[in-house]
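Researcher: Please predict.
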Amino acid sequence: MKRTLRYLPIFLTFILLPIMISLSLAQAPAGVDPQAAVLLERAREAHGGEALRTLRTLRDVSVLTFLDPVGQPVGEMRAVSLIDLENGRLRVAFSEGDELTFIQQLKPDEGFTWTPQTGVLNLPAAQRRGLRQTFYLSYYGLRFGGENREAAELLSETTFLGMTGKAVRVTTNGFTTIYLFDADGRLLAESFWSDQLGEVNVVYEDYREVGELVLPFRLRQYVGEMLLAKIEVQALEPNVEITDADFVLP
C-alpha cells in the first residue's frame, strides 16, 4: 500500500478535453502563431467541437496499474475523479478493493488531502498549483481551441515515445504543455513539466465516442521515458451534476 501511495501525486495532474475551423489571422492573439491556432482549433473539433468547448464537468472512473522501473506491476488502484471545469474544482478518490485509501481535492481558494492515517491535511500553495494545472492539460485543455492562449508555437514534426505527429507548444493561464497531434487533429501524446517530477509524458489511445465527445480510454504515463503507470478508463460521464456535497471529506 505505501509503495502504491507514493505514486499518487503524479496522477493528480492528469486524471487523471462545433465550431468549424474559422480562426482568422486577425483574431489570433499576440504570441500565438496563426498556424498553431488553426491546429488547436482542428484538435478541438476532432475531440467534440462545441461539445468540448462547452464541457462543464466530467466524472472519470479509471483503474491505474503502477509499474516499477523494469515494467513490472507493483500495485493497482481505482480512481474516481470529479472535474468541475466550470467552477475550478477537482476531487480524486483512490481505493484498493472496497477500501478508500486516499483523497485529494481542490477548490479555487483551498486544497486538501485525506487518508485514514492522517485525516485531513491542507495542501500548500505549490501543490494546489500543481493540481490546478489539470484544467489546462490533456483533452480538458483542448476545449480552448486556439482561443484565450497566452502563447502557441507550431513545432516541426516530432516523434516521442514512438508517436509521430505535428506538435504545438501552448501556454494557457500560465501553464505550458506540448501537444502531439495526428493528421486529423487527434491527440496522440503530451509532454509537460512538473515541479515535483520533472518531464512528464502521456500517450493517449483507444478513442471512443462519449455522446458528442471523442475521448481516450487508455493512457500510458511516463516520467521522462520511464513508464510509470497504465490507465484503463472504465467510465466517462460528461456534464454530470457536481454539488458541494461531493466535496465533503470523510
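Model: The first strand starts at residue 57 and ends at 67.
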